[in-house]
Amino acid sequence: MPPVSGEAAGPDPRLGGRAIRRIVFDADAIARRVSELGAEITDSYPNGNLLVVGLLKGSVIFVSDLVRAIRRPLQIDFLAAASYGTGTTSGGTVRLVYDPETRLDGRDILVVEDIVDSGRTLARLLEIIRQRGPRSLAVCALLHKRIATALHQPVRFVGFDAPPEFLVGYGLDHAEDYRHLPYIASI
Ligand code: IMP
Ligand code: MG
Questions:
Q1: How far is the CA of 38 from the centre of ligand 1 (A)?
Q2: CA-to-CA distance for 65 and 26, rounded, in angstroms?
Q3: pLDDT tens readout for residues 80-102
Q4: What's the pTM value of the predicted model, to 2 decimals?
Q5: What ligand 1 atom has the least distance to the C-alpha of 166?
Q6: Atom of ligand 1 nearest to the CA of 120
Q7: Lowest-confidence segment of 45-54, 86-95, 119-128, 148-157 by average pLDDT
Q8: What is Dmax (Cα atoms) for the chain?
Q9: CA-closest residue to ligand 1 atom 3
């Protein structure tokens, strides 16, 4: 792959001429942190049934890198909730739009989220998962804004503390754009 962090290389054609404020985490920083998280997760679970549940769509890129850094058997499924409209502020309601096929009872479940903002989405989803009787339930978030008041369970694995800005890239979108950026930028 060609170098991707390089602001020096001129405007990123992926942006289609739109401006970003700054690159907050470049591809190398993300790769290093994901590999550390993978090691932490590997060491944190006893042998058994680890099920990684990615929250769609924001976590897809993170999940696909993260699972390859976890050195133990596991399975992957996804959950989709809609909480944001097309803007940059929270809508407040959480709607399940895809429900995993996998049975969750008795499983060690690691929910993977792109970013914890108010924590509302995650709190609601954890409630739904908990009702299905997992053996354990933990969360791994790539980014944490550290302002969540709605979340009663701590996020066990955190990639980076996020600045109070709207971030895009590496899965995070603004109105469905920018998910494919290999870095995380503020807009
Ligand atoms: P919460 O329910 O307020 O914690 O919002 C969580 C969801 O909102 C995340 O899964 C993201 O999809 C979205 N979100 C929150 N902050 C940002 C951001 O800075 N950039 C892009 N999406 C965000
Ligand atoms: Mg999202």
A1: 22
A2: 15
A3: 987 655 444 455 567 677 777 78
A4: 0.90
A5: 19
A6: 2
A7: 86-95
A8: 51
A9: 118
